[in-house]
Design goal:
The chain is an alpha+beta fold. The chain folds into 2 domains: 70 residues, Glutaredoxin; 116 residues, Glutathione S-transferase Yfyf (Class Pi), Chain A, domain 2 (Up-down Bundle). The protein is 59% helix and 9% strand. It has 9 helices and 4 strands. A 4-stranded mixed sheet has the order 2-1-3-4, covered by helices on one side. Strand 3 and strand 4 form a beta hairpin. The longest helix is centred in the middle third of the chain and has 35 residues. The chain is globular and about 45 Å long. The model has no long low-confidence stretch (mean pLDDT 94).
Length: 212
């Protein structure tokens, strides 16, 4: 199917992990897309639980990032980002679930959000909050490093949706001093992120803060 006329409207913050994930998935599928700035608790947000993003595509209104990503890849990209082999598909899904249920909440609330509030809202940096989270963050980075170095972990099936979810989550971590230091100590993780950094779909969706 030709994607020349396909349009995707993504409602969510301009700088958002899950908005960026879907932008990358759209780029991989060669779909034109637009981000409509929408705060999670904005009146115009149509998510039933006030979450973001909400996506309009194919005359549908979709919520929840993981199933949206699978829909876009299946409908518009020939399942290019999802392994055909069931065991590899399971591994991809497992890493997406690990990211969404454990890694993102830990990294976002314990490290990334305190810096966002400090840098962009002028709030004092919550060093106590960061300090409480750092031991668990360090253990999580070590877990990812060991899994990746051992047998390729989520990369064994090539570049999949799991790479996109994990990369964007870790991008936020790398944007903090403590996170950048932790990732720099993980050789396999750093090498994988460097490969992702250069992927066209990722460079095409860079945030302004990355370009600066």
């Amino acid at each position: 199917m030709s994607n020349e006329m396909a349009q995707v409207r993504i409602f969510g913050p301009i700088i958002s992990t899950y908005v960026r994930i879907l932008e990358i998935v759209c780029e991989e599928a060669d779909l034109t897309h637009e981000v409509i700035p929408t705060a999670a608790q904005a009146p115009q947000n149509r998510h039933p639980f006030g979450k973001v993003p909400v996506v309009e595509i194919d005359e549908l209104e979709l919520t929840e990032t993981a199933p949206i990503a699978r829909y876009i890849d299946t409908r518009h990209n020939g399942v290019s980002l999802q392994p055909a082999d069931p065991s590899k598909r399971y591994a991809m899904d497992r890493w997406i679930a690990t990211n969404d249920n454990y890694l993102f909440p830990l990294f976002e609330h314990g490290l990334v959000m305190p810096y966002i509030m400090h840098r962009h809202a002028g709030a004092p940096l919550d060093k106590e909050r960061i300090g409480r989270a750092l031991p668990n963050i360090a253990r999580s980075l070590e877990f990812l490093e060991l899994e990746l170095a051992k047998d390729g972990a989520w990369t064994r099936a090539g570049f999949t949706l799991a790479d996109i979810f994990l990369y964007v989550t870790l991008l936020g971590v790398r944007g903090t001093p403590e996170g950048a230091q932790g990732i720099a100590q993980c050789d396999a993780l750093s090498a994988w992120m460097a490969v992702c950094d250069a992927r066209p779909s990722i460079t095409a969706t860079r945030w302004e803060i990355e370009r600066g």
